[in-house]
Amino acid sequence: MMKQPGLLGLIFSASAACALAASAPPQVTFHKDVEPILQKHCQECHRPGEIAPFSLLSYKDARPWAKSIRADVLTRKMPPWFADPHFGHFSNDRSLSAEEMATVVSWVDGGSKEGDLKDAPKALAFVDGWNIQKPDVVLQMSEAFHLPAKGEVPYQYVVLPTRFTEDKWVQMAEARPSDRSVVHHVVIFIRDPNSKWLRDAKTGVPIVPTGGNIQNISGGGNDVLMIYTPGKVPEMWRPGLGKMIKAGSDLVLQIHYTTNGKESEDNTKIGLVFAKQKPTERAVTMAGSSLGFAIPPGDPNYRVDAKNTFPNGVTILNFFPHMHVRGKAFEYRLVYPDGRKEVLLRVPNYDFFWQLDYRLPQPLTIPPGAQIECTAWYDNSPNNPHNPDPTATVRFGEQSSEEMMFGFYDIVVPADMNLNDLFRQRREGAPSASVQ
399 or 58: whose pLDDT is higher? Predict the structure, then answer.
């Protein structure tokens, strides 16, 4: 449920409401003024079967939550969007404009009136099957996973054989949990045919890998097809760009389930739409990461850094920071060869329960020799309301009670590039790289 803001939130809400009052449209009603805003920013998650705890598809749905909506809009808790607006612009920015905030506040302060149904916008046509085109291939768990009502559920891994006899180029990909209310995230790895990762695992069914082997819980060095989180739109690469699944590869799902007070079952499926022609460019998922950190007990602002250097330059499409419940803030920086630094994304208030990606409106090309730096900050103090144990020294691990530090981002490389050549400095006039 949405929470009412604390004292500082209430003070901010009051001042913000006064500041917005002057820009509020007169005689605000739900159907004419508020419903279009909910369609644009909220209904993707606030509808039956999705992650939000209640629906906002109709006036009847929204009216009981009017005061909570007002509070969360003013404190910018909702819609969830955590990028600092002073650094970078992103095509999937779901935050409300000042005018939209004023409209919502004025609607609530004016009595939350319904208005004339004739003024309502056309209802959005949500697909209860796929949000991409009809998939060319659907891969699915062979049996559902049963969740208990309470307790921590270990990460589940599911190997889905593709049985592809030729390389496939994916233009669109979507993950569809059957119970989205209990799926916190799904990472979909492309297991290379030569990879030994989880080779002994039974296919099609959720398993828990043997502990103690970092390769078992970090993808075994394989590429990521996509990551599903609540509120994250499916992957749809532009024409000429796609993800490659080599012949003989399998997909491996890493699924993080969260219990919600009642028993449940989930059977996640993956839909793939293939490119009509072989793309000229390939999208590859990279990450700045750190595995050896140890967050001291009670530390309110522990810092972990990671970086990648690109000797030949590279083009970047998006950013996706990932930490657990002690995650506090995250930042990506571009370091030019001359030492200059530029903040590409700053997330000052990271929220483990809303894992968002940040998509650049135009691809960013960085020069040869530049670095992408990532910094994560963690709050292991008693002041962190989600901290399960502020007396613990916290290390890398997949459970929410442990921590991770991954600064994911997708890059663009030529379709036939050997990825080993990405980090080898190319000589002037050298021939192009061979196929991987």
Answer: 58
